[in-house]
Amino acid sequence: MNVHARKILGSGLLAVCLSLSTIAVQAATILGTSSGGSSPASIYSIDTVTGEATLIGSVGLVDSLGRPNKVSAVALHPVSGKYFGILGSNCSGAKLIEIDPVTGLGSPIGFLVGSGFDGSNDTGDGNTIFPPGTGGCFGGADSLVFSADGEHLYAGGWNGGFAGGSFLEVDQFTGAVLSAVGTDVHPNADPMFPSGVAYSGLARAANGDIWVSRGGNGAGLIHTVDPNTGSFSSTVILSDPTARISDIAFGEGDILFGSDAPNGTLVTISTNPGTVTVVGVSGFGGGAKISGLASVAAEVPADDCANPNGCDFGGQNLVLPPGVNTAGATVSRISTEDPTPNDDGVNTTVLADGRLFVAPFLRSASPIQILEMDSNLVISNGTILVTIEPGDFLDDPLPCDTPIPLGVDPQLQDIVVWQTTDVAEIREGRALEITSDCGGSSRGRSRGLSFFVVGLHIDCGIDWFVDPHGVKHCFIDLTHTKFHGLVQAVFASKDVLSDTDFRRLVGLTVWSKILFHWRFYGAAEATLTRLIDKVNALAFASSNFNHSGNIEMRAANVRFMIQKIQNIITNIHLAGDDDSDSD
């Protein structure tokens, strides 16, 4: 794919949600998928306190004959935050799909085929000849999990060229089976046709251990598995010998959850000594038959983010300001796909929490990736730094070169858009105000954690090579709008600063805006740097609004835009076009 196309197709949106005055700690959830029941082949949000499953939506995919299939497994990629699942089951084929956890919609990737395994028969018609002992079940898969680094995707296969169970490594981009080994022989297998046990569920613990449940073929048991051999490395006998655990997933605090299929309930499982506890009393509810489970986010303790190096989510690093109470707090992330743009090509998206995200200057011709972070932190002052590595989200991001190389359209440079969660009065929801930084390594500054667009670009709808001055004026107009937001943010801080400090901030802000208006871009940039330094040195009174973080984020944003404008002007001159009407 060429660079221009990749800039459009590689958009990602990271939503980081914090209430900024009073944090309402919501019940933790895990994601569930259904193999049948009231809504087969659908995605559910499961409350880990009550065990109740709430329907999100159908994946909208069918088998090769156009009939609804099952979604028997789901797994969270620990780096990208994307969800993957298996359309099918042990006896109805296996197709790898990507799942949008906000809408439930699935996108097909490919059948699990390769290394002697064939999960392509999703109709059960028996047209393919399989080894003896398959019992009329022509193969598929029922479990899925990623390695801790996200480099390896494992699945539990059944038949499909093997007699019984197999442990598969799957290419997450194509669905191809990279390797397949038989699982441990089932103790009740026919001696004439020894077959491996079935894996019903797979989950990864915080220490990287991979756990497996076996459903009805191994009631009352869970195991750890060696991913190199597919063999069990340990066995835990559950306190309920009749428990048929369809799938398992680790949630907050590394608690292992399981789906007790016959009883339709969510359970917790202690891996030592194996105690099974039913969550809630009503089961999943609504006739849901949950087959697959997955944690909702890559998660780290907030304490890890309070050190100078911050905490790493894989492609994203978070540093909390000093003085934040992180006791017992966690930070987590999920991902989804959301359709955009509108008919005018403008990125308009309803976010997971119902807010409208509008980016008039930021355009994308494909669905965008929404990543949502949740935390129970309250941050009333200081600046949160979030560093994004677009290379971990995009295949070929345009490098964050300063200046932009001559001959490169500045509109195609990757940026990170920061959607603040501050207050609606400061145009909440409009990314045009707060485009933060370009790709390579980008930082956003605000009170609390907010929404991002990773890898998007400023697209004025103008051909740079035909009308570079038009692009320049687009960047200038956008910066004027951003300046307006900065001025608003400074004046909103009057009540939490001394009169002297407030006047200093106003003076620096207004002076930089005047310099920018009269095209003294270098001086305006230097004045914004002084403003940022002053903000970091001031003591803001306690408030339920993070004025210091908000002002610093916006000032850094405007400074970034001015740097790009100066770069654009330089490239126009280097290209031999000195007919500038505003330089």
What is this structure, in a nutshell?
The chain is an alpha+beta fold and 583 residues long.
What does it look like?
By secondary structure, the chain is an alpha+beta fold. It folds into two domains: 29-295, Neuraminidase, CATH 2.120.10; 300-574, no CATH class. It is built from five helices and 35 strands. It has helices at 3-9, 468-491, 499-517, 521-537, 547-574, and strands spanning 12-17, 29-37, 42-47, 53-58, 71-76, 83-88, 94-99, 106-111, 113-114, 117-118, 140-146, 153-158, 165-170, 177-182, 201-204, 210-213, 221-225, 232-237, 245-250, 256-260, 265-269, 276-278, 288-295, 298-301, 311-312, 316-319, 330-338, 346-350, 356-363, 368-375, 385-388, 415-419, 435-438, 442-444, 451-456. The chain has a seven-stranded mixed beta sheet. A hairpin with a 5-residue loop joins strand 3 and strand 4. Helix 4 (521-537) runs antiparallel to helix 5 (547-574). It is elongated, with a radius of gyration of 27 Å. It starts with a helix and ends in a 9-residue tail after the last helix.
